[in-house]
Amino acid sequence: MKRYFTLLCFICFYLFGIAQNKAEEALKYFQDNYPLEKVFIQYNKTSYIAGEKMWFKGYVFSEYSPSSQSTNLYVELYSQQKQLLDRSIIPLLNGAGEGSFSLNKQLDEGVYYIRAYTSWMLNYDENFPYLHQLVIYNPESAQQVKVKPVRWDAKAFAESGQLIAAIENKVSIRLFSETFLPTSWSGVVKERDDPFKIVAHFTSFNEEISAFDFTPEAGKAYVAVINDNLGHVKTISLPDVKHSGILLKVQQQADTMICKVVFKNQPAKNRFKLIGQMQNQLVCQAGITNLDSIVTVKLPAKLLTDGIIHFTLFDNNDQPLTERLSFFHVGQIRFPELSLDSLSFNKRSLNVWKIGIDSASFYTYSMFVADDNIPTFKDNLLSSLLLSNDITIQSAKPAWYFPADDSLKKGALDAFLITEKWRWFTWQNMLNGRFPRRDYKEEQYLSFTGTVFNGKKLQLNKDINLLFQFRDSSVIFQQVSTDSTGAFQINGALFEDTIKVFYKINSKKVSAQNVKVLFERNNQFKRLVGSLPAGPYYMAARKPNDSVSTALQRSLDAYQTQFLIDNKYKNLQEVVVKAKRKSAVDRLNDSLSTLLFHSANEVVYDFVNEDQHAYGYSNIMDWIRMRVPGASTGVNYARSVYIDEISVSLHEAYTLPVSDVAMVKVFRNFTGRFGEGQSIAIYTRRGYRSYPVGLPQGYLVGYKSLDNYTPFNYGEDGFEQVKYDAREVLYWNTSMSSEKGSSNVRFYNNDITKSYRIVVMGFTNNGLPVYMEKVIVPR
User: Fold this and answer.
1) Which of 671, 692, 713 is the last residue of a domain?
2) Do 417 and 205 form a contact (C-beta atoms < 8 A)?
3) How many CB atoms lie within 10 A of CB 147?
4) Which positions carry the signal peptide feature in this UniProt record (predicted)?
5) Co-location of 517 and 601 in the same domain
6) What is the DSSP letter of 773?
7) Is the separation of the CB atoms in 34 and 435 below 8 Å?
8) In 3-state terms, what secondary structure has residue 335?
C-alpha cells in the first residue's frame, strides 16, 4: 500500500499551529481499519451473442496500485430479473486474474449484469461492488432489445456549492440520463427576470459536462438555457446568490495545486482548517484565519501521484463547511513501447508486433486488438482506477477523460469533479463515530474446514495425514491437526477443478475405514439483495419482418466462425491414454504405499526384487546415509521419517534392522507440512505382507478451470474451411509473457478490417499504471 507524504501546505498570508484533532484522528482510523479495494473488469467485447463465450480479465486495486490484500475476485452474471445465471471465483496474482463465462445458447435477448467484488468489499453497502451492464443478443428470442429515445435532465453546480455576490466563481452544468446523452450541447446564462440579458455562454466538453466562470450580482437570480444537437431545449436554475459565505477554489498550475479560500462578510479572526486527503490518507493540512479576504494554499506535486484530492474546510469546532474534489495530474502513467515489425491490413494477413512489458509484473498486462469500427468501452483501466470507484454518481462515459493528455480533458475532468462527492465516507459519519461494520475479512485464496469423525465420535487434537490428488495424478502431502472441536483448516489453497483428498489418522490404533472427514469450503458468494439499475434499453416484441442490423449480422457471422474453429481445436485435443505395463518395483510400491505416499518426485529403493547392497549395515538409516545421494551431509538430513506410513523419531528409525525392510522411498525437495528437506518413508516386510492399501477419500472444489482462448492461425491446416471471417476482435491476450522486457504479438487480420484499435494495460514493477489506446491506420 502506497503511503503519501503529508505536506504542511504553504500559506501565503497567515498560518497558525495545528494540533492533531478529531477530523485527522477520524481519517487516520478509517485509513488504518478500512483499506480501499476497487474492481475493474476488461472484456473482450461490449456485447455478446447467446452461445458465445464471454472472456474477461479482472483487476483489484488497493488505492492506486494492484491489491495484495485480497486474492479472490467473486464474479456473478445476472439477468435483468435478478436471476443468477453463472458465477465464478477468480484467483488473483498481483491484483489480476482472468476468467470466462459460457453463455447459454437459449438465453433470451436482453440486458444482463456483471457484478464483482472481493470479500472485503462486502463490509460496505451494495453500491460498492462493481456492476457492469451489457446486452446479449439472440435473434431467436421472442423479444428484442431496443434503445430508448434520448431524454436528459441537467443540474448546475457551483464550485464549493454556492454563489456569492460580487465574487467570480466557476459553475459546472452536468447532464444526467437513464438513456444515452446527446453528443453535443451548448447554452447561455441569463438573468431570470430579464431573459434578454445574457451573462455567460457555455459549450459542452463532451456529452455530459460543461463549465463557465461568471460573477453574480446581489439580488439577482440566474437560469441556464441548454440546447442539444437533437433540438431539445431545457431551462434550469443556478444556485441562489448569497451575500456572504466562504468559497473554496482549487486549480492546478504546472506542478502545484493552488487552493484559494475566499471570505465574504465573515466574522473577523475566525479560525479554520483546510484538510486534503488522497485515497483516505492525509496529504495536506493547514490552519488559516480570515484576517484577509483571500488565503492561498500551495500543494506541490512532490511525493504525490495522479489522482483525486478531496479538500475540506473545517471551522474551529471541526465541523465541515465546504468540500471540493480536484484531480492532481502528476504524469506517472506509463505508456508502453509498441513496435510494428510487420503491419498489414490485407485480407487474412499476418501481423507481427512487439510490446514493451516489465518482466516482474507481466501477469498484470493484457492486450486487445479489434476493428476500429466496433463500439468502444465505457470504462477503462485508468478511469476505473483514478475516477469511477471514488465518486458517488457514475459518469456517462468515464473512459473519455483518460488518459488526460490535453487541456480539454483536464478542464472537463475538473468541471466534472465540481459536480461530485467523495464516495468512501462522509465527514459527519466519521466525526460521529459511524463506520462500516467489519463482518468480512480479506481472503488469501481458498480455505476449507475439515471435521474428523471416527465412527460417530469427533476426533479432538489428532494428527491427520492428507494426500491431495489432482487431475494430472500429481499429489501433495500435508499433515494437519484437529482442534478441540475436531476440525482443522486448510488455508491458502490454489488449485483448479475438483481434487480428491485421501486421509488417515496418524495412529496404528485407528482403522482407516472407520474415519470420515467432512469438508466444507469457507469461501462463499453473497447474492445481490437490492435492485439492478435501469439502463438505456427496453424490450419490444420481435416481428417476423424485422431485419437484423448490419452490426448484429457481423457479430452473428463472427460467432459462427468462432464456433467452427473452437470445435476443430476440441477434436484435436481428444487423445487416448494407453495404460503402461507395471514393473515389479511399481507393483511393490502399489502394494505397500497408499496414495497418501505417492508422489512424482519420489525415489523408490526395492529391497524385495533388487539387490540394494545392504550387507554389513546394522540399521536402515546407516544404509540411507551411505547409499542415498545427498544423505551423507549429516544424520539429520531427513526432516521427516515414516515407518509403514506412521511418523517416527530418528532414534526409532535407527533401531530398525535392514533385514526387516521391504522398500524405502525418498521424497526430494518436499515443501509441504513434512518439512522443507527430504522426507523418508520406510516399509517393513511385515507391512509388505499385511499393510492395507485402501484409504477413505473426500473432495475439494477449487477454482474454475480456465478455458483456452482459440486464436485464428491461417498458417495451420483446417482454417481453409472458414468461408467468411468477420471477427470483431482480432487479438485477445490477458496473460502476456515477457522476454527481455517485451512480448511478441502475432495475429491474423479478418476479411474486412482496414484499421486497428489496440488497447494495452497493466502495471509496472513499481505498481504504476500502464495504459495505451490508439488507432492504427494504413501508412
Assistant:
1) 692
2) no
3) 12
4) 1-23
5) no
6) E
7) yes
8) coil
**Residue found by looking up cell 448569497 in the block:** 242
| Location of C-alpha cell 526387516 | 660
- The three cell numbers locating residue 401: 477523460
Is residue 770, in this structure, part of any structural domain at all? no
**Cis bond leading into 403, ω under 30°?**
yes
Run means of pLDDT, 10 residues per run, the chain, 779 residues: 44 40 93 94 97 96 91 96 96 94 96 97 89 96 95 96 94 96 97 93 98 96 97 97 93 87 85 93 87 74 86 92 94 91 96 86 89 94 95 95 91 97 95 92 94 94 88 78 96 90 88 91 92 92 91 94 78 46 80 76 87 86 83 60 83 87 78 51 69 72 89 86 94 86 93 96 90 93
What is the number of domains present in the chain? 3
Q: Which helix (H) or strand (E) holds 569?
A: helix 550-572
Q: Which of 478, 502, 521 is the last residue of a domain?
A: 521
Q: Is residue 111 part of a domain?
A: no
Same domain? For 615 and 479 the reply is no
Is 234 within a domain? yes
Distances from the Cα of 595 to the Cαs of 472, 473, 576, 684, in angstroms?
Answer: 14, 10, 24, 17
CA dihedral 120, 124, 125, 127 (to 10 degrees): -80
What is the extent of the structural domain holding 631? Answer: 595-692
How far apart (Å, rounded) are the C-alpha atoms in residues 162 and 171? 9
Burial class from Cβ neighbours inside 10 Å (0-12, 13-18, 19+) for residue 115 reads buried
Q: Which of 594, 607, 697 shows the shortest CA–CA distance to 642? A: 594
Say which residues have a Cβ less than 8 Å from residue 240's Cβ, sequence separation at least 6.
162, 163, 221
Looking at the fold, whether 486 and 599 belong to one and the same domain comes out as no
Domain containing 615 — which CATH number?
2.170.130.10
Question: 285-304 in b/e burial notation, b at 16+ Cβ within 10 A?
Answer: bbbbbbeeeebbbbbebeeb
Q: What is the pLDDT of residue 287?
A: 87
